[in-house]
Amino acid sequence: MIDLSAHQSALPNLRDMGNIPIASSSSSSSTSSRPLQTRPGLLYRAAAPTSKAVPSLQALSITHVFDLRSDVEIDRQGGPPAADACSSAPPALARHHVPVFQSTDYTPEAIALRFQDYAAVDTTAGFVSAYRGILGAGGERAFAPILRHLAQRDPSPCLVHCTAGKDRTGLICAIVLSLCGVDDRTIAWEYGLTDEGLAPLKPAMVRGLMAAPGVALDEEGALRMLSSRWASSPESMLATLEAINEEYGSVEEYVLKQCKLTRHEMVQIRENFTVEAPPTTNGDTSRPAL
């Protein structure tokens, strides 16, 4: 297993979506009786890469970078950090701008402001409302290119990111994991790891929230808002997955209807992203503790 800690400064909130256990009852083309897991080294998630990200991308053999940020966010952050280097570095690194929202700021700070009325009543409802908007806007334009990359024959490693690698990135990763048969509680557990991954970025988020137009917040107030609206609660992801089931019938139906993928492409994603889990020292391959 590759140690990702050396790449965290260049690729904040970096995680490999591999080595995640798949529910034993999930459908799979594999005839093996061995437990299954997601394939390591194929799909990575992160916050926006820094200008020093290219060596890390190369070290991880990443060939495609999918940027979910809006034009507003990219302009505010000084442009796509690694875009020029990605286009010329050997081996070639292709950057794909696949914005969920073309001109809407959807950073965690912006979501905190947009849905702040939920904070005192029902924080989870606020996240579900925000995530419904992402799911509705992002299907064919933003999520489909990522899914089709994973569905092609022998896909190369790719990175998916937004600004913080939390909300938009968290949703597309949850969709991929669900398509592969990872159970909802494990998906929610993985989503919750973002709190630790974003800890180094929190001071900058607080400053951004304090500086937001029309907002009168001191540092304590900004921290309080972010603590309720920024935290990656597993319950928020569980509620979002439930909302997908209620609105579309299942994650698979969402991908069919909103992302316009075929059932064959979804089967191909499962085949590409599913492998046998190696035996552990005690002969068990249990999922992470939730």
From TrEMBL:
**Which lineage?**
Eukaryota, Fungi, Dikarya, Ascomycota, Pezizomycotina
- GO MF annotations in UniProt: phosphoprotein phosphatase activity
**InterPro entries, A to Z:** Prot-tyrosine_phosphatase-like, Tyr/Ser_Pase_IphP-type, Tyr_Pase_AS, Tyr_Pase_dom
Top-level taxon of origin: Eukaryota
Disordered: region residues: 15-37
Biased composition of type Low complexity is found at: 24-33
Q: Where is the Tyrosine specific protein phosphatases domain?
A: 141-177
Per its record, how is this protein called by name? Tyrosine specific protein phosphatases domain-containing protein
